[in-house]
Amino acid sequence: MRIEKTRSGQSAGSVKRSGASGDRAAFSSALEPAAPAVSTQSAAGLVGVSSVAAVMALQGAEDPLEKRKRVARRGRQMLESLDQLKLDLLDGRDTEATLTRMKTLIESAREQSDDPSLESLIDQIELRVEVEIAKRKSVHGN
In this model, does residue 13 exceed pLDDT 60? Predict the structure, then answer.
């Protein structure tokens, strides 16, 4: 198989040959960064920073449904501790571990769910837990 030398689309007569210094100048200018490329690079840097900031903002944004689930989970945990306290008292077991759990739940940070009915329910559960803790303190003299 023989490979022939190919030519560009222009005819040989129409190609202008520049001198050695012209080729060097053209080559040197091709190596230098163009002015628009510099501004594009600086803009690309800003885009990277703003996209990172956008991701950080999205991570910080709370999903209302997730927040509501966490508030409801905390309410269920408090109700479970009240049930456990009731069972401990009925069976004559030591209530210290259950009371400690109840205190921990009450002292944990409470989130707001933006649901007035859920907030009212959590208020009532917390009040009942606090009453039970206070009753046990008065009984045990703590």
Answer: no
Note the pLDDT tens digit of each residue in 68-99: 999 999 999 999 999 999 999 999 999 999 99
- Nearest alpha-carbon partner for 74 in 43, 113, 114: 113
Q: Which residue has the tokens 């206070």?
A: 134
d(CA 107, CA 128): 14
Torsion sign (Cα): 58, 112, 71, 120: negative
Please state the domain extents for the chain: 64-140
pTM of the entire structure?
0.55
Beta-carbon count within 10 A of 122 CB: 20
Rounded to the nearest 10°, the torsion over CA 65, 69, 70, 72 is: 130
**What is the spatial distance between Cα 43 and Cα 141, in angstroms, rounded to a whole number?**
69
Residue-by-residue DSSP string for 58-80 = HHHSPPHHHHHHHHHHHHHHHHH
